């Protein structure tokens, strides 16, 4: 059994699985919540799901920043050993997922900012309005949010396929990311 | 005939994948039942506010905007009085059980037998929840049956397969130890 060598590795694992559960929940819930009635004074069905969506999204952005820092620190600690093509591909997939999560979360937040809706982070901290209401920019960032999320879903499917491939090969790679 | 040995790590990765998907599904169902409360605006027959800018932003027609409210009305009108509380309970327990199945998946990857054995209880619980959900949904009207029965039937089969595979793995390991 391969045990995490340091607290960085444990933290990386905890963040990885939190990220995985949160991203899948965000996908499922966003497909559903867009079928709710459009917001108005009377129909407030979207308020809680959208606020929760934003809360989780902003939290994921913070998690991704921590994960990037951890990965960077670990990389500095590792020897610059030669990497196989498969390892390089795995690295690319990993960085692609980080970049796409960051793009999804930031475009979603910017879209929300330009829509004129307030963001109260976990119903505790009122985030300042970064921008004035602007329909054109709201639609632009909303489109970016949508497309980056579809690309993220594709990258996640590849990531899952790779994990199952390594698991079925039993090549001792999987235990490194499974606590 | 020679059979390839079952890879515990591969099976663990598959369990974790289904655990994450089940967590997201149960979480979304919980959120759905919290948001779609009886006596809310759609049930009171309040007309939707289909503003041109909102329609443009969401890429919706006026008819689709009206149907978003009808969709909530359909959900509320076809839910028996017990349905919401049963769904809240099932999805709440389901989220916890799904997180438990992640621990079982991790245990398979690291071949931790005591935790692997507890997988039988975990998948048994998930299977029971699917069965209760299936019976509950079958007792509602055609609109909710159309929405719930097929996904529940799929999950029932997935959890049945995982339960049997887990049981087979534990039994095989016990036989190996006895020999």
Question: Can you give a write-up of this model?
Answer:
The complex is a heterodimer of chains A (179) and B (179). Chain A is mainly α. Helices cover 69% and strands 2% of the residues of chain A. Chain A contains 4 helices and 2 strands; from the N terminus they run αααββα. Chain A is elongated. The N and C termini of chain A lie close together (10 Å). Chain B folds into 2 domains: 9-38 and 81-178; 39-78, no CATH class. Chain B starts with 7 loop residues before the first helix and ends with a helix. The model of chain B has no long low-confidence stretch (mean pLDDT 90). Chains A and B meet through helix 1, helix 2 and helix 4 of A and helix 1, helix 2, helix 3 and helix 4 of B.
- Alpha plus pi helix count of chain A: 4
Cα-based radius of gyration of chain A, to the nearest Å: 19 Å
Could you state the order of secondary-structure elements of chain B as H and E? HHHHHH
User: In the residues of chain B, how many domains can be counted?
Assistant: 2
Radius of gyration of chain B: 21 Å
Give the strand content of chain A.
under 5%
Going by CATH, the architecture of chain A would be: Up-down Bundle
Question: What is the assembly state of the chains in this entry?
Answer: heterodimer
Largest sheet of chain B: none
What's the short story on this structure?
The complex is a heterodimer of chains A (179) and B (179). By secondary structure, chain A is mainly α.
Which helices and strands, and how do they pair?
The complex is a heterodimer of chains A (179) and B (179).
Chain A (H helix, E strand, L loop, with lengths): L6 H27 L13 H31 L7 H31 L4 E2 L3 E2 L8 H35 L10
Antiparallel strand pairs in A: 1-2
Chain B lengths: L7 H28 L16 H7 L3 H16 L5 H28 L2 H26 L3 H37 L1
Helix pairs in contact in B: 1-4, 4-5, 5-6
């Amino acid at each position: 059994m391969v045990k995490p060598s340091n607290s960085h590795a444990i933290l990386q694992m905890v963040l990885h699985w939190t990220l995985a559960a949160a991203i899948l929940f965000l996908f499922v819930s966003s497909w559903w919540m867009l079928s709710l009635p459009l917001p108005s004074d009377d129909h407030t069905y979207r308020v809680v799901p959208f606020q929760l969506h934003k809360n989780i999204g902003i939290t994921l952005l913070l998690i991704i920043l921590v994960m990037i820092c951890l990965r960077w620190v670990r990389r500095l600690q590792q020897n610059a050993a030669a990497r196989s093509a498969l390892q390089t591909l795995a690295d690319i997939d990993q960085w692609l997922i980080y970049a796409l999560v960051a793009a999804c979360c930031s475009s979603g937040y910017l879209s929300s900012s330009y829509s004129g809706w307030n963001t109260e982070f976990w119903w505790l901290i009122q985030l300042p309005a970064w921008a004035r209401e602007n329909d054109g920019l709201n639609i632009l960032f909303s489109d970016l949010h949508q497309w980056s999320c579809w690309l993220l879903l594709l990258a996640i499917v590849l990531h899952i396929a790779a994990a199952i491939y390594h698991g079925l090969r039993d090549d001792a790679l999987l235990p490194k990311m499974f606590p | 005939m020679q059979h390839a040995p079952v890879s515990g790590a591969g099976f663990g990765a598959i369990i974790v994948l289904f655990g994450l998907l089940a967590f997201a599904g149960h979480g979304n169902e919980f959120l759905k039942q919290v948001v779609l409360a009886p006596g809310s605006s759609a049930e009171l027959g309040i007309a939707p506010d289909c503003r041109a800018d909102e329609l443009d932003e969401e890429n919706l027609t006026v008819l689709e905007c009206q149907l978003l409210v009808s969709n909530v009305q359909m959900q509320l009108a076809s839910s028996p009085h017990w349905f919401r509380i049963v769904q809240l309970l099932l999805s709440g327990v389901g989220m916890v059980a799904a997180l438990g199945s992640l621990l079982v998946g991790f245990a398979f990857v690291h071949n931790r037998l005591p935790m692997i054995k507890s997988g039988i209880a975990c998948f048994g619980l998930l299977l029971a929840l699917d069965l209760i959900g299936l019976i509950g949904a079958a007792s509602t009207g055609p609109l909710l049956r159309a929405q719930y029965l097929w996904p529940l039937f799929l999950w029932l089969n997935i959890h049945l397969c995982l339960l049997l595979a887990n049981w087979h793995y534990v039994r095989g390991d016990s036989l190996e130890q006895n020999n």
